[in-house]
Amino acid sequence: MMTRRLVAEALGTAFLLIAVVGSGIMAETLSGGNTGFALLANAIPTGCALYVLITVLGPVSGAHFNPAVTLAFALMRRIAPAEAAAYAAVQVAGGIVGVWLAHAMFDLEILQVSTTARTGGAQWLAEVIATFGLLFAILGGLRHAPAQVPALVGTYIAGAYWFTASTSFANPAVTIARGLTDTFAGIDPAHILAFVLAQLAGATLAAFSLPKLFSD
């Protein structure tokens, strides 16, 4: 049922943002100014949350939680365009609600706008690579080890926090939502569009190249 799948995508994306923003707030509070520790404390919970969310909601909706992933599946004709558009809409909405819930949980101002600059060619390239790598983990996992996809995605994202210059947003819904938090995880709204375009470019490249790599 489409309604159930949309609820799963909205709920999963909301919990993903709760994990990203909430762990970022906690990390910044406890790190004593140690940015490396804060990033580690942000990356591990995000990867763990993805493992749980994909395991639980994958059988319901496919557990995209990411318009770039949904775009790639639409380009590969594994999801209809109308369904893909609906998925993307609820992913963005769920992500925004997740940010607001994280703020409320830590008794912060609900409505915020980020002031954290994240821009430049190196970071845009990092987002192309991060998103391509995410699809590489998903499609390769689906082809060779379907039961391991939650672990593959969770560990990939946790690792990509560290090996990409952008800390691996790799998700337009996450990027848009993180523009609405002026905390450790934030991104200045003026820099969102370039990140999203880079993510969509990475997803498109993956959709047209990886099926050939992982074909029978």
UniProtKB/TrEMBL annotation:
Transmembrane segments: 37-63, 84-102, 122-142, 149-170, 190-210
Superkingdom, taxonomy of origin: Bacteria
Membrane topology qualifier: Multi-pass membrane protein
InterPro entries registered for this protein in UniProt: Aquaporin-like (IPR023271), Aquaporin_transptr (IPR034294), MIP (IPR000425), MIP_CS (IPR022357)
Similarity comment: Belongs to the MIP/aquaporin (TC 1.A.8) family.
Key words, A-Z: Membrane, Transmembrane, Transmembrane helix, Transport
Record's subcellular location: Membrane
The protein's name: Aquaporin family protein
Predominant location category: membrane
Lineage: Bacteria, Pseudomonadati, Pseudomonadota, Alphaproteobacteria, Rhodobacterales
Keyword Membrane: yes
